[in-house]
Here is the input.
Amino acid sequence: MATKAVLEIGEETMAMRVVGALRDEIVSMALKPGDVISESDIAGRYGVSRQPVREAFIRLAQQGLLLIRPKRATVVKKISPDGVRQSRFIRESIEVEIVRRLAANPGDAATVLAELIAEQEIASGAGDSRRFHTLDELFHRTLARLAGVEYAWQLIDDHKMQLDRVRYLTLGASSSRVAIGEHKVLASAVAAGDVAAAEAAMRAHLARAEVLLSQTIADHPDYFE
Here is the structure.
């Protein structure tokens, strides 16, 4: 029984690793909407058995990233515009409360956020969109941590995959500079302890998702449902 339990834990851990790796490939567009994938190919790529890959496929299908068709190919799902809008709604609802809480008691937020923004400027200047995406995520997660509600970021992270796919498609130099400017406004409002301004800055920052969605649909119509 102990051996079986250890095996089950090992398979569960491996499945989660495959979920994370595939999710990253789908969000970053290394795997594009409509791409066909198979259990055997993914198992070979990651050096695992097909069982954890099968479990990973099921979880990613539940998250709206894969379409599993019995006895047919599994494909990367196209992006749902409605899913993007719902992701934004969830994210805005939670993040507005995060910055309101942080602005009411900013502590050393000004220093921490300034350091993150400086790193973002370096990544943007180097044209490193992948690095910028990582730092952008870290900025928002840090807001939650500084506000003492880091678990809230996990709730956001679990529901923002569709939005992330759109964001990644638009992370050019001009888009990253706009985001950095918005981060500076947000950080300034938090540092000043201006709750109303922090809320307004966050709403304006996340509202740009609608513009990005329209732009991306026009540029990549085949990627959308």
Summary: Confidence is low (pLDDT under 50) at residues 1-9. The CA atoms of residues 211 and 217 lie 10 Å apart. Residues 2-27 form the longest helix (26 residues). The beta strands are 36-37, 66-67, 74-76.
